[in-house]
């Protein structure tokens, strides 16, 4: 998208300059006026569509990842009844997300080529989702891993709950075991 934005002005400049050169000298003033008044209306149209494409590329929902502010995540987790789910608190889950993905819905990690972790909950392709390149995946959540890297975390939440339910807790998440288990976690929901 950014390349398009850079190329457009150069293309427009070339088009106008070509029109200018094809006319005889006595016609140039007339052409210049036409370019400004009418002919270069195409320039405006191209610019408009160029900016529209860049704008859509930046704002289309579901295509880009984003960092979810801590308190927004707390609100989402409370709404989805995470408090008390599998005997854990919302603070446990916020701590888990902080240390697995740093709240980034677009987070991705390659585990030495054997499997990959996707999204805000860093869900693994060996057991829970299918990325098309992890042999023998269980795909227990019945989901394409790419869906776990967009900014709609509804499906991520559904899958995370399946994982926690099967494990009767949050032990499948290495970061939770390391940074959250048995720790004082009040700060993760403080002020929310
Ligand atoms: Ca998703």
UniProtKB/TrEMBL annotation:
GO molecular function: lysozyme activity
GO terms of biological process kind: cell wall macromolecule catabolic process; defense response to Gram-negative bacterium; defense response to Gram-positive bacterium; killing of cells of another organism
Enzyme Commission code(s) on record: 3.2.1.17
Keyword annotations: Antimicrobial, Bacteriolytic enzyme, Disulfide bond, Glycosidase, Hydrolase, Membrane, Secreted, Transmembrane, Transmembrane helix
Main location: secreted
Reactions this protein catalyses: Hydrolysis of (1->4)-beta-linkages between N-acetylmuramic acid and N-acetyl-D-glucosamine residues in a peptidoglycan and between N-acetyl-D-glucosamine residues in chitodextrins
PROSITE patterns recorded: GLYCOSYL_HYDROL_F22_1, GLYCOSYL_HYDROL_F22_2
Membrane-spanning residues: 46-63
Superkingdom of the organism of origin: Eukaryota
Cited SMART domains: LYZ1
Residue intervals of the Glycosyl hydrolases family 22 (GH22) domain: 141-159
Subcellular location per the Swiss-Prot or TrEMBL entry: Secreted
GO cellular component: cytoplasm; extracellular region
PANTHER family (alphabetical): LYSOZYME C
Family: Belongs to the glycosyl hydrolase 22 family.
Descriptive protein name: lysozyme
Native source species: Anser cygnoides (Swan goose)
């Amino acid at each position: 998208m950014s390349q398009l934005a850079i190329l457009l002005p150069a293309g427009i400049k070339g088009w106008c300059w070509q029109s200018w050169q094809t006319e005889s000298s006595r016609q140039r003033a007339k052409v210049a006026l036409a370019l400004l008044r009418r002919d270069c209306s195409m320039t405006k149209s191209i610019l408009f569509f160029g900016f529209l494409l860049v704008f859509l590329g930046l704002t289309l929902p579901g295509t880009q990842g984003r960092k979810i502010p801590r308190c927004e995540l707390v609100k989402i987790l409370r709404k989805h009844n995470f408090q008390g789910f599998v005997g854990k608190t919302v603070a446990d889950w916020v701590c888990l997300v902080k240390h697995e993905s740093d709240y980034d819905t677009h987070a991705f990690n390659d585990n030495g080529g054997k499997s990959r972790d996707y999204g805000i909950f860093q869900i693994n392709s060996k057991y829970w989702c299918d990325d098309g390149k992890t042999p023998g995946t269980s795909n227990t959540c019945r989901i394409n891993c790419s869906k776990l890297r967009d900014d709609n975390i509804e499906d991520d939440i559904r899958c995370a709950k399946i994982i926690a339910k099967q494990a009767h807790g949050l032990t499948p998440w290495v970061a939770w075991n390391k940074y959250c288990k048995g720790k004082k976690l009040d700060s993760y929901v403080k002020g929310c």
